């Protein structure tokens, strides 16, 4: 088969690779029908994730068709069309038993494209198939389902839910990339009064407007003053950090009102300063998190019922064997205006 293989920092190749086989009796082999690229994959290619070994197949967001199952798999069978979760779940450990699948201690968690081969390939081995894949209703397209592999549950769980968005809130989202845009959609499920989005790229601010943002700001427009004016001097009820750099995290801590919530979603590679000398007296709650994907069944039901809109996230489409071109487009959003790219089996 062909697969996208990591060969050390700055090096990748869409190349021949042995087909995967069943290793454990809870495995399934899935033919990849649609797959996407995550910003985390770009971090890996930069060498920011040293736990990823050379020779690893990347990718953790895909839709596919089951072609083989291990003897212990009872809920999936060949021919089933499934969403592959970015998080694998053993279903047995203490974390999985509380639906904290991202912290699985039984061999799951974020393993695909990280500690084991991922899904940017023609075929993939999926561990714990019964608990790490989701059957797809006929009315849900492959492209629509792709967003539920990672970014929609991430923005819902780590952003809107951890941030405790409530009806009538003012929500500020810093960063209008795919996660930030998904955070607009998932925050709106809780009926905030105002959603403010801050980003430096005009194309991404335009996308934020289309996704339902009420107020658009650039970093050079003094967002602290603007948010204070919108809220009678109090600040935002919730600030969602969706970039992953120190400046944006520290900005979020300055944008929230006393008693407000900062929900950090971005993946940080550098330390950020936590100004406790200012924050301790303001009753600020700061949350972080790796997605658990416990919300995926709920979001999938909403998608199938037409109550969740994932359209607009995919801006560029490719055949699976155009993986190199897709990476180039996704890695240059300032030039390509790419949000999410999707690749399909032809």
Automatic annotation (TrEMBL):
Keywords, ordered alphabetically: Metal-binding, Oxidoreductase, Zinc
Residue ranges of every copy of the Enoyl reductase (ER) domain listed in the record: 10-343
MF GO annotations: oxidoreductase activity; zinc ion binding
Keyword Mitochondrion recorded: no
InterPro entries in the cross-refs: ADH-like_C (IPR013149), ADH-like_N (IPR013154), ADH_Zn_CS (IPR002328), ER (IPR020843), GroES-like_sf (IPR011032), NAD(P)-bd_dom_sf (IPR036291)
Keyword S-adenosyl-L-methionine attached: no
Domain of life: Bacteria
A Pfam cross-reference name: ADH_N
Family to which the UniProt record says this protein belongs: Belongs to the zinc-containing alcohol dehydrogenase family.
Gene3D superfamilies in UniProt: Medium-chain alcohol dehydrogenases, catalytic domain, NAD(P)-binding Rossmann-like Domain
Alphabetical list of SMART domains matching this protein: PKS_ER
Cofactors named for this entry: Zn(2+)
Name this polypeptide is given: Alcohol dehydrogenase
